[in-house]
Design brief:
Elements (H helix, E strand, L loop, with lengths): L5 E5 L2 H11 L3 E5 L5 E3 L19 E2 L5 E2 L1 E3 L4 H12 L3 E4 L5 H14 L5 E3 L7 H9 L6 H28 L10 H17 L4 E11 L5 H4 L1 E9 L2 E3 L16 E2 L3 H10 L5 E13 L7 H12 L3 H13 L15 H15 L35 H4 L5 H16 L5 E15 L14 E15 L43 E13 L8 H11 L7 H10 L3 E4 L2 E4 L1 H13 L6 H15 L5 H10 L11 H6 L6 H4 L1 E5 L2 E6 L2 E10 L8 E5 L11 H10 L5 E5 L6 E7 L2 E6 L12 H10 L5 E3 L11 H8 L3 E5 L6 E7 L2 E6 L2 E4 L5 H4 L2 H9 L2 E2 L3 E2 L5 E5 L6 E7 L2 E5 L4 E3 L11 H14 L19 H7 L1
Parallel strand pairs: 1-2, 1-7, 7-8, 11-12
Antiparallel strand pairs: 3-6, 4-5, 9-10, 9-16, 10-11, 10-15, 13-14, 13-16, 14-15, 17-18, 19-20, 20-21, 21-22, 23-24, 24-25, 25-26, 27-28, 28-29, 29-30, 31-32, 33-34, 34-35, 35-36
Helix pairs in contact: 3-5, 5-17, 5-18, 6-15, 6-16, 9-14, 10-13, 10-15
Length: 935
């Protein structure tokens, strides 16, 4: 063993590189590349355990919920490497993140490495030289309570998923999953869409105008301002807030104006003398927002930078691991004393001493269970680097996110913004008795009309000089009179002219404006994160992963920034609501989170809690039953009913195996068997709230039913038809039924049918549609695969054909991609040979130039480039290829991120081909007498 060597283990290669630069000689800093162990999949269990207590969950629920962990297959090489390094070390530092997950990773490392040298837990919330030195001097023991809490979560999620998901497989679709937080998040998105589907718009009108003082000779001093009608004859004018989602007026003692009434008021106010009835001025002040927590960072990055939660957390992790910001998973908005000093000092230097309050601002967490890192997300170090100082080191999303964090942190220690808000009410008499204004529902009489306007003047910007917090869309927000309607800033500055009560005003441009109430806005990632946190569901550190899961599972898709649920999500949510109501209940899920926090605090025993959850107890919370009995006593679930949503007027949407479709009861499909209803598939890009009865009928009328006869093949004489199949539209030839000997056995008939000629088929090209398809188009498709020619060197035939991944050439087993679908029909032998002369890359693709060059890899010392492959963009150093993740953008990927992806791929090692699984013969049953004797 080398004297004085110390092994430091962190999670990521990027973090390891940064810390190694601070520690220097005598330290080996290695990355575990995330978790090294997890609960075994039942198929991974040793043969002798598969029928034992661990067989179902890899958790022995009858003996203290003991878990059975295994080293991940792609981490065995990494574990061996860490064990080798440990042999040459005399001390081990576990420097994983300081939250529950990091504590669990450290515990798993300890369990697997079994060190015989002293072990120290090293924690820090920022990666700077000073922070790392402080962490070395202030190590601690592993926090087993945090490990217990994380282990309980993992076991809970395994029990939940493995008990509930199979129900979804049987009743909805194979491969679906249910989860403690993901199912609740999906339900929230589905419920919002249900509200939009049930919504009925209401129409209401108001009057707006531009006003100016009349008794001021100087035109510049008169000033103009916009105001809206707010009261008629003592009653408040109805606005969007006064209607419910059914379009019914719910506001008490309000006046609902229609177009006729609003137009009559405009006519009745023509030439009227307006006066200032009241004027009120109040002082205005606003405090800055608290420094970022994980949740608020995701929300604000979504609003201001248009970043998804996953991309935000990926970028923040990169900034943290490279020493730019503090740890990015935290519930706490608290700043350390050093950070407060740094923020106040920087605010004074950049904006002036008057922008810094006399006393530091202290923020406290609103969360009852803030338990992650102990400080807010802020720039790293005791002296913050400004965005200008890091502009050459960071680019793209990294720079934008760092700038956002820096602004928010500095602004949090700055003075309030101050000013004044003025509110004015103007009144005039609307003379509806005039011929131009008569005949409205308001009657032919004179009415008192009151208009209102307000204006805010900021006299001292304070923290707003550095930063202003964004907001989510408000369904009831309407632009102020005279505004362009695109300014949603809370501090919409609009100065009212000087005036006093009784002043005369002249009205100009009085107009009647019609409005329609809007449905509840769909969740965005930012507003969903906010809603989850407000309800106490899940942990903010897992929200990004939760949103990614419900998108990857096909439950939710993005339309711009809005989250739109799929019809599949409707079916899954309905099944869970009707059969596992408590498991997707918001309050119950929040209570589970509180229980898990109590386990982390040492106030609850995890085994007792898991026993209550799974087996039930006197105080059981799952509908009086434990999860086990809840699943066992489900009874019959009507799969067809669960997968059906009533659209109305006899039309029902079904969630089918190959996608959603609608069917109309009582209407016979053309050319189908008796009793088969008329059906039509639902386009993927049609949101659920857009599938109205009218739209459904349009789909039923425009989508073809049965075979579309295109004509006969002039060569073979067989009919050619087009069909809408499970996997999309296609053309085929109709061959006569083969004549079989009636005396053949069933097996012989099956073999004869298999040997019979098969009809040619061809999928439509992307540019084709069933409604406009011609016989010539169909014959071209049926001509594929097309023989291009014979390779003169090899004598092997080259064909052009269409495949799962698009058009391609095939020469024996060697395939190459064609640039367009049309090329299948007109590519020549010379052009095909030229394509084959190019170097092959990937599965039949030709070599392409790099999209970007990313510098030298720190491990292989070879140049790293970004390329576009058949399955997406990837980075390579010529030896190792690593595909970009969903959250990695081609335009903004950094050399550090590329190095991290390559390091992770190397750590996983080469992909091993799975050996074919041979089914063992079923064990012979013992004779009944022997079984009875054994019993």
């Amino acid at each position: 063993m080398s004297a004085g060597r110390k092994l430091v283990i962190v999670e990521s290669p990027a973090k390891a590189r940064t810390i190694a630069g601070y520690l220097g000689e005598g330290y080996d800093v290695e990355a575990s590349v995330g978790h090294i162990r997890d609960l075994a999949q039942p198929s991974e269990l040793p043969a002798d355990m598969k029928k034992g207590p661990f067989g179902k969950f890899a958790v022995d629920v009858d003996n203290g919920f003991a878990p059975y962990y295994v080293v991940d297959a792609d981490k065995k090489k990494k574990v061996s490497e860490l064990k080798r390094l440990l042999k040459d070390s005399d001390e081990l530092f576990l420097a994983t993140d300081e939250d529950r997950e990091g504590e669990a990773i450290a515990w798993h490392l300890l369990q697997e490495l079994k060190p015989k040298v002293p072990v120290k837990r090293m924690v820090f919330h920022e990666i700077t030289r000073e922070a790392i030195q402080r962490a070395l001097e202030n190590t601690r023991e592993l926090d087993t309570r945090m490990v217990d809490a994380q282990e309980t979560r993992r076991i809970l999620d395994r029990l939940y998923g493995y008990e509930v998901s199979p129900v979804l497989w049987r009743k909805v679709r194979q491969g679906l999953s249910a989860g403690r937080v993901q199912s609740v998040a999906t339900r929230m998105v589905v419920e919002r869409e249900r509200e939009r589907m049930a919504f009925r718009a209401a129409e209401y009108w108001d009057v707006a105008g531009t006003f100016a003082r009349t008794e001021v000779p100087d035109d510049a001093a008169r000033g103009t301002f916009g105001a809206k009608l707010v009261q008629v004859d003592g009653k408040r004018v109805a606005s969007g807030r006064d209607f419910d989602d059914r379009g019914v007026l719910t506001g008490a003692d309000v006046r609902h104006l229609d177009e006729v009434s609003a137009t009559a008021l405009v006519a009745g106010l023509d030439g009227a003398e307006f006066t200032v009835r009241s004027l009120e001025t109040k002082p205005y002040s606003r405090k800055p927002a608290a420094p970022f927590t994980t949740s608020t960072l995701q929300q604000e990055a979504g609003r201001k930078l248009r970043l998804g939660s996953r991309q935000t957390m990926r970028t923040a992790q990169s900034l943290y691991e490279n020493g730019y910001i503090t740890y990015m998973r935290t519930d706490s908005p608290v700043l350390s004393a050093q950070a407060i000093d740094a923020a106040r000092r920087q605010a004074a230097e950049l904006y002036g001493a008057e922008y810094v309050p006399d006393k530091p601002r202290v923020y406290a967490s609103k969360s009852k269970s803030a338990q992650e890192a102990h400080e807010a997300i802020r720039p790293a170090g005791d002296h913050f680097r400004t965005p200008a100082q890091v502009a050459r080191e960071l680019s793209g999303d990294q720079f934008r996110l760092y700038e956002l964090i820096w602004k928010r942190t500095v602004a949090s220690q700055m003075a309030d913004s101050r000013g004044s808000t003025a509110s004015v009410r103007l009144a005039a008499t609307a003379r509806l008795s005039t011929p131009a204004a008569s005949g409205s529902p308001l009657g032919d009489r004179d009415l008192d009309a009151v208009f209102a306007a307000s204006g805010t003047v900021i006299t001292f910007r304070g923290f707003m000089a550095a930063y202003e917090e964004g907001r989510d869309a408000d369904r009831y927000e309407e632009p102020a009179a005279g505004s362009k309607g695109d300014d949603r800033s809370e501090e919409r500055e609009s100065r009212l002219p000087q005036m006093a009560e009784g002043d005369a005003l002249a009205a100009a441009d009085l107009t009647a404006d019609g409005h329609r109430t809007s449905p509840p806005p769909r969740y965005t990632e930012a507003s969903l994160v906010k809603a989850l946190e407000e309800r106490g569901i899940g942990r903010p550190s897992t929200y990004a992963a939760t949103i990614s899961v419900i998108q990857d599972r096909g439950y939710v898709t993005g339309r711009g920034q809005a989250l739109v649920p799929s019809w599949l999500a409707f079916a899954v949510t309905r099944l869970l609501e009707e059969n596992f109501g408590s498991l997707v209940d918001y309050d119950f899920t929040a209570e589970m989170e509180q229980d898990l926090d109590e386990i982390a605090a040492g106030d609850r025993d995890r085994v007792e809690w898991l026993t209550e959850f799974y087996f039930g107890a006197d105080a059981a919370k799952v509908e009086g039953l434990g999860l086990r009995d809840l699943v066992a006593n489900l009874g019959d679930i009507d799969a067809r009913e669960v997968n059906s949503i009533d659209i109305g007027d006899g039309i029902t949407l079904r969630v089918g195996r190959y996608g959603p479709y609608i069917e109309e009861t009582g209407v016979q499909a053309v050319g189908a068997e008796v009793g088969t209803p008329r059906r039509a598939s639902v386009p993927e890009d049609l949101a659920p709230d857009e599938l109205t009865v009218t739209k459904a009928r349009e789909l039923l009328e425009t989508q073809p039913e049965g075979d579309i006869v295109l004509g006969e093949d002039p060569v073979t004489g067989t009919p050619i038809v087009a069909r809408n199949g499970r996997y999309g539209p296609y053309v085929t030839e109709v061959l006569p039924e083969p004549e079989l000997d009636p005396a053949l056995s069933a097996a012989a008939k099956k073999r004869a049918l298999a040997a019979a000629a098969k009809p040619r088929t061809g999928s439509l090209l992307k540019s084709m549609q069933l409604q406009t398809l011609t016989l010539d188009d169909a014959l071209r498709l049926l001509s594929l695969p097309r023989v291009v020619g014979t390779d003169p060197e090899t004598g092997v035939e080259i064909t052009a054909q269409n495949g799962r991944y698009g058009p391609y050439l095939k020469r024996g087993t060697d395939s190459r991609t064609l640039p367009t679908e049309e090329a299948m029909f007109d590519v020549t032998l010379e052009e095909a040979l030229a394509i084959y002369a190019q170097p092959k890359r990937g599965r039949g693709a030709t070599a392409t130039a790099p999209l970007r060059e990313l510098g030298e890899d720190p491990v292989s010392k070879k140049p790293v480039v970004l390329k576009e492959g058949r399955f997406g963009a990837y980075v390579t150093d010529g030896e190792t290829n690593a595909t970009l993740r969903k959250e990695d953008a081609v335009e903004t990927i950094t050399p550090e991120r590329a190095a991290e992806l390559l390091a992770e791929k190397r750590a996983r090692g080469p992909v091993k081909k799975k050996a074919p699984v041979r089914k063992a013969a079923a064990p012979r049953k013992a004779p009944a007498k022997a079984r009875a004797a054994k019993a």
